[in-house]
Amino acid sequence: MTTPSLFSDLLSDPAGADQTLLSLLPPARPASHGTLITYFKRYKMEIDLHDLPAPQLPEGFHWVAWQPTLSELHADVLYSSFENEVDALVFTSLGERAGCRALMNELARRSTFIPAATWLLAQDDQPCGTIQGLRERSGVGAIQNLGILPQYRGRGLGIALLLQALHGFRQSGVSRTVLEVTAQNERALRLYSRLGFRRTKTTYKAVSLNDRR
Ligand SMILES: CC(C)(COP(=O)(O)OP(=O)(O)OC[C@H]1O[C@@H](n2cnc3c(N)ncnc32)[C@H](O)[C@@H]1OP(=O)(O)O)[C@@H](O)C(=O)NCCC(=O)NCCS
User: Fold this and answer.
1) Which atom of ligand 1 is nearest to the CA of 148?
2) What is the domain range of residue 112?
């Protein structure tokens, strides 16, 4: 059994671990075969795509449209955006650079991938944000991962990137878009609510603290 590095760091040396991250880990319960399971509360949210405001970018920032050669760049921004964030505990792939690269490749290969809802945000030559979009079987759009590098946060870039993707969904014929957010992720929740996303469902994601990598 291997324990993912984030968990093993937190569990083997709680005193030395990042206390913010540690505080985000819900209490674990023993399950069968000695497995420790914890449950993260998640909200499903949705928005109708009419009357969307145009995204506003500060000077010096620009959009980079999806092309397959950008997959690794998206993955690297994804990794650095989610590093030490709660979703890197919820989804193992987000906590590892290789996991982010595999995730991006997998998303882009899907027939439901929407290039028009997948964007990099950059300042000059420096990428600083990523978002990806899929179409669910029902025809509804599904935001995958919105990430802004830590040093670029609090300037409205997260909202702008989300709006840019929502316009891309609409241009692709999608009229409603959903996303899922971990309940502890208050910053993301505030951002989604401010934009008009409504909570539609609460789920609990079981995460095993053992036997994952
Ligand atoms: C969630 C996330 C994308 C937000 O990105 P961001 O660029 O900081 O978002 P914004 O700047 O648009 O909005 C965040 C805050 O900045 C404020 N803000 C917006 N424009 C601003 C400006 N021009 N000047 C100062 N502050 C501003 C907003 O009011 C908001 O404040 P609040 O958090 O107190 O409500 C980012 O924190 C992130 O990447 N987190 C890690 C990955 C993650 O959890 N993603 C979501 C998964 S569901």
Assistant:
1) 39
2) 44-202
